[in-house]
Write a structure and sequence with these properties.
Elements: H1 5-15, H2 18-28, H3 33-38, H4 45-58, H5 63-76, E1 83-89, H6 100-114, E2 118-124, E3 129-136, E4 149-154, E5 159-163, H7 170-181, E6 185-193, H8 196-203, H9 230-250, E7 260-267, H10 275-278, E8 284-291, H11 295-305, H12 314-317, H13 319-322, E9 326-330, E10 333-335
Parallel strand pairs: 7-9
Antiparallel strand pairs: 1-5, 1-6, 2-3, 3-4, 4-5, 7-8, 9-10
Length: 342
C-alpha cells in the first residue's frame, strides 16, 4: 500500500461512530463478506480498527478506496461540516438538462487542466445531489487528503453547497463549476450553516412558509371586562394571541435549522454631541451575532412565550423568505455584502 494510505484510513475510521461502522463498511463494499463476518462490532474501537486495517492491507487497498469511504461517511453525516451556499447565474439554454455523466466529465477535465496535482471523487445521492470531494495539491506536491473541499451540487437547480474552501482555490473551483454546469457566474449568497438539509430547504423553498395577510401590530395588554374572572383567563388569552403572532410570522410547521444569524452595521455615526466620531470619514462598524442550535425555532419560541417583543423585526422575520443569515446594514438599508466567486 502507499505510505499515506494507512494514516488516511485511520483518521477516517476514527470519525465514524461505532453505531454506524457496520452499515458504512457494508456500503463501502471493499471488505469481503467473510471479512465482515469476522468483525465483532461489540469489541472496542481500537481492536476493531486494527482488524479493519489488517483486512484492507490484505486486500491491497489504495488511496481511491479510502476516498470512497470518506465520501460515504460525509454523505451520512453532512452536519459535521460547515456549509456555504452559492448560486449560479447566466445559464445557457441547455443548462437545466445537464446529466451526471456530462457534468462529471467537464468538471474533472477542466480542474485537472488548471492544476497538476488534484484528487477528485464523485458520488450521486438519492435526492439528485452530486457530491464532489476535491483534495488539493499544486504543481509540486501531492493532494492533501486530510483537508478536502466538499461540494454538493443539486442537479437541475442553480445552487451549490461548499465546505472547507480556501481563498487560494476559489478561482479554480469557480471556473470548473461554471463550465461544467453551463453558467456564466457563481457567487456566494450569504447563507451558511451546518445542517445541509435545512440550507437546501431554504433556497429551494421546501418548507411550510408563512403568509401574512395583514400588518402585525404590537400586542396590547387586555383588561378583562369582568375583573372577577381572574388573571387565568387573561393570561391564556394573551398566550393564544402570542402563538397566533408567531404562527403568522414564521408559519405553523417546523422551520429550517440555522445555527447563526449575523448582522454587520456599516453606517455613518450620527450624534451632534460627539463630533469626533460624527466627523470621521469612515463608516461606523459593528456586528451582532445570534447563535442557537436552531435559531429560527428559538426565535419563534421567544415570540410564543412573550419574551421577544412583537411585531418581530423584519431583519429577523425575513430570514427564511430571503434565504440569508448574513447581512450588512448600510446607509442604503439592509443587504448582503458583495462576495467574490468561490
Amino acid at each position: 500500500m502507499e505510505d499515506s494510505v494507512i494514516p488516511f484510513l485511520e483518521k477516517t475510521l476514527q470519525r465514524i461512530p461505532s453505531s454506524s461502522l457496520k452499515s458504512i463498511l457494508n456500503e463501502w463494499g471493499f471488505l469481503t463478506a467473510q471479512q465482515l463476518q469476522d468483525l465483532h462490532f461489540q469489541q472496542s474501537k481500537h481492536i476493531l480498527h486494527n482488524k479493519v486495517l489488517a483486512f484492507c492491507e490484505e486486500n491491497g487497498m489504495r488511496i481511491r478506496h479510502v476516498i470512497q469511504l470518506d465520501m460515504i461517511y460525509n454523505c451520512e453525516y453532512p452536519n459535521k461540516r460547515n456549509w456555504s451556499v452559492y448560486q449560479f447565474s447566466g445559464q445557457e439554454d441547455d443548462a437545466l438538462v445537464l446529466n451526471m455523466t456530462e457534468f462529471s466529465q467537464k468538471f474533472k477535465v477542466n480542474l485537472k487542466d488548471l492544476l497538476r496535482h488534484v484528487s477528485i471523487g464523485m458520488k450521486k445521492c438519492e435526492d439528485d445531489a452530486v457530491w464532489i470531494r476535491v483534495a488539493w495539491g499544486d504543481n509540486f506536491t501531492k493532494p492533501n487528503q486530510f483537508k478536502p473541499t466538499y461540494v454538493v451540487y443539486q442537479l437541475q437547480t442553480p445552487y451549490v453547497f461548499i465546505s472547507n474552501l480556501n481563498v487560494k482555490h476559489r478561482p479554480l473551483l469557480s471556473q470548473a463549476l461554471v463550465i461544467a454546469t453551463k453558467h456564466d457566474e457563481i457567487k456566494e449568497i450569504q447563507l451558511r450553516g451546518r445542517c445541509l438539509k435545512s440550507l437546501k430547504d431554504l433556497v429551494l423553498r421546501r418548507y411550510k412558509q408563512s403568509f401574512q395577510t395583514h400588518q402585525l401590530k404590537p400586542l396590547q395588554e387586555r383588561n378583562s371586562p369582568e375583573r372577577d374572572q381572574g388573571i387565568v383567563h387573561e393570561h391564556a388569552k394573551r398566550l393564544a394571541d402570542l402563538k397566533e403572532v408567531a404562527t403568522q410570522t414564521f408559519g405553523d410547521g417546523p422551520l429550517p435549522k440555522l445555527e447563526t444569524a449575523v448582522f454587520k452595521l456599516e453606517t455613518k455615526f450620527k450624534d451632534p454631541e460627539n463630533r469626533i466620531l460624527t466627523n470621521r470619514p469612515e463608516p461606523f462598524r459593528c456586528a451582532v451575532k445570534f447563535s442557537s442550535p436552531s435559531f429560527l425555532e428559538s426565535l419563534k419560541s421567544l415570540v410564543t412565550l412573550g419574551v421577544a417583543s412583537t411585531p418581530v423585526s423584519p431583519l429577523l422575520s425575513s430570514i427564511p423568505q430571503k434565504a440569508r443569515n448574513h447581512f450588512v446594514i448600510s446607509e442604503r438599508g439592509p443587504g448582503v455584502p458583495s462576495t467574490p466567486a468561490p
